[in-house]
Amino acid sequence: MLLSIIWNVDPEAFSILGREIRWYGILWVIGLIVAVYVVERIFNKEKLPEKWFDSLFIYSMIGIIVGARLGHCLFYQPEFYLAHPIEILKIWEGGLASHGGVLGIIIAVALYSKNVNHLHINWTFDRMMVPTGFVAGCIRLGNLMNHEIYGSPTDLPWGFSFIENINEWMAGAPAVHGPASHPTQIYEALVYFIVFGITMWMYYKTNAKNRVGLITGVGIAIIFIARFFIEYVKLVQVDSEIAMRDNTGLVLGQWLSIPFILWGLCLIINALRKEPKEIKTPQRKTEVSNTKKKK
Question: What is the pTM of this model?
Fold first, then answer.
């Protein structure tokens, strides 16, 4: 075996009443708590109606969970899940796709923008994009704890040797370690945490929030450009991807990333072409009206 870091972390953090609680779930919750806190502070800073935040939370939670689950089932294993639709509901058994989660969020925010705040969808995306990198980074660290979604063999000194028979090992069987592999979960997590830092800086230290779509475009472009290239050293998730890679040179994750990269770049270009403009929300309209009355 190549020199590597032996990764023996147990995916189970602890159990409650015989029910295992995994690090993956804990990290998901941490990510969502931070996201809720950041977006709530943004809404409070802009003095937006409280119901806007409450509704956004409901819409986005449904969108990301349903989208991520359907994305995994329909993008990666459609034959199995269409033949066994009840299995789609078994989300606790694993199987969430980031591309599906993004599509779910897009649909959810589109409905939210139409039914709740009546502002341009990209205005809402810009506020939600700020903590997105943190959530995505936590999810990838969860994948690391689960010994899943790692890369191809490598002789680099930071290669990780993951347990290949993780479920059997957790049941008491001897661990079977694979070859030293790229810890692609860490690669992606680092990119996502950097995106979190960039979008926080853009929102709080620049006028980017007044260029509708700019924060979203930067975040989306960086995330999916990184995802596209990291896929080159990531092991395929399902067997059907092998044929796709052999026929096209790209795997499904890369094909799914291309539209998001183009979307992000278009948002950036469009936002930079226009002058910064402060969008009038209900609170701002009231302030402007009161100012005029005083005059």
Answer: 0.85
